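Order emerges. For instance:

***
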Amino acid sequence: MKPIKSTLFNMVTVLTIVAICSAAAIGYVYKITKAPIDDAKNGNILSAIKEIVGVFDNNPFEERTSISGSNVELYPAREKGTITSVAIKSSSDEGFGGKIELIIGILMDGTITGYKIVEQSETPGLGTKVTEPQFSNQFVGKNAYTDNFDLKKDGGEIDAVTGATISSRAVVGAVKNAVEAYNKFAGATHNEK
């Protein structure tokens, strides 16, 4: 067999065929891995909801809702048909390592039950300390209606993680987004009654 002559047309043709085959392979891998990845992420979120809001007898995923103009999702937790608390997925893109996503629990009287970070890329041993109880427990028991959620450095009540102010501010920002969404949700829920 004669070797193929190296011309611009032949090189472009071969490169195009390789690109099409590569794109098809990547598309196929994406298609077969998307559902398991989404299921695992949803499992992590449901686990965080259970940990943060405690007992509920509904499926919060079926009732999840978004607040227009925000990047949050609300997951109402019900007991015997009554909403007792709300788990809110909120995020901030202002972390040192990028996006920090968390689930925060808020009772219907506005009391925060805590938060759980479900996605983050912060510096191990430093920024990741925002996941530890010493930082996260500062939010437990605070009220969405009355308390200040800023860092002490910014005039608030929350102590930042030493050496991880950026990560601390990102978590505070995500919590504040969630509190704002909760206040809109709770106002709408009270107006329906």
User: Anything to note?
Assistant: The radius of gyration is 23 Å. The chain has one domain: 52-192. Residues 52-192 form one domain.
